[in-house]
Design goal:
The structure is a single chain. The chain is built from 8 helices and 5 strands, in the order βαβαβαββααααα. With 213 residues, it is α/β, with parallel strands linked by helices. The chain has 2 domains: 125 residues, Rossmann fold (3-Layer(aba) Sandwich); 59 residues, Arc Repressor Mutant, subunit A (Orthogonal Bundle), CATH 1.10.10. α3 runs antiparallel to α4, α6 packs across α7 and α7 packs across α8. The termini are far apart.
């Protein structure tokens, strides 16, 4: 009997597998089982070396469907993602993404269809790596800016309407591609607050530090 497995990776304590499951079910997927890796960096650890990710290589069988939020969940870089997708396709596993509803099927016998599919795999993997690199550079720039601004404020300004944990949750969900309304609903913050944080995450962090939060 074939089954549909959702693989979720969460890299911080504020991200949740439940959020990814909710998105998958809302997109129409009927999930039979969920495999979750928590506290694992997607840009540092290959899927086959993650505690739960490596289970997929043993448990997935021909005819099964692997559901992921996006292809970046399947590897740490372009090569890793493409190798993983092609490995599962060779096994007869159907890979589907929640975002954009992409489907990667290894059963295509027509050479042209297979060529188009492989080109799409390569393109999506390249996009995933480009996004990961952009995220790393943004984080690096934010850290450098914070260091440069690491000084005592004479005027603390208005006390932030969010907590440290809520800020981390907002940043994590923004990185995951969640929308403003969705983040506001999950965190209980106003959309205006989420928009201000999205516009300048460093200033939002500095405001908390000024108040010793």
């Amino acid at each position: 009997m074939t089954k549909t497995i959702l693989y979720a990776r969460v890299s911080t304590n504020d991200q949740t597998a439940a959020h990814q499951e909710t998105q998958a079910r809302a997109a129409g997927f009927e999930i039979d089982e969920i495999v979750v890796d928590e506290g694992v960096s997607g840009v540092q650890v290959p899927l086959a070396e993650r505690p739960q990710g490596k289970r997929l290589f043993d448990m997935l069988r021909k005819g099964d469907t692997l559901v992921v939020r996006w292809v970046d969940r399947l590897g740490r870089n372009y090569q890793d993602v493409t190798d993983t997708i092609r490995h599962f396709m060779r096994k007869g596993v159907l890979i589907r993404t929640v975002i954009n509803g992409m489907t990667f099927d290894g059963s295509a016998s027509d050479p042209m269809q297979a060529a188009v599919r492989d080109a799409l795999v390569a393109f999506m993997a390249a996009m995933a790596q480009a996004q990961a690199e952009a995220t790393k550079e943004a984080q690096k720039a934010g850290i450098e800016h914070a260091r440069a601004q690491n000084r005592t404020r004479v005027y603390k300004g208005r006390k932030p309407s969010y907590t440290r944990k809520e800020l981390e949750t907002v940043i994590a969900m923004l990185t995951d591609g969640a929308g403003t309304s969705e983040i506001a609903k999950v965190t209980g913050l106003t959309r205006q607050t989420v928009l201000r944080i999205r516009a300048n995450q460093t200033d939002a962090d500095d405001a908390l530090k000024a108040w010793g939060l």
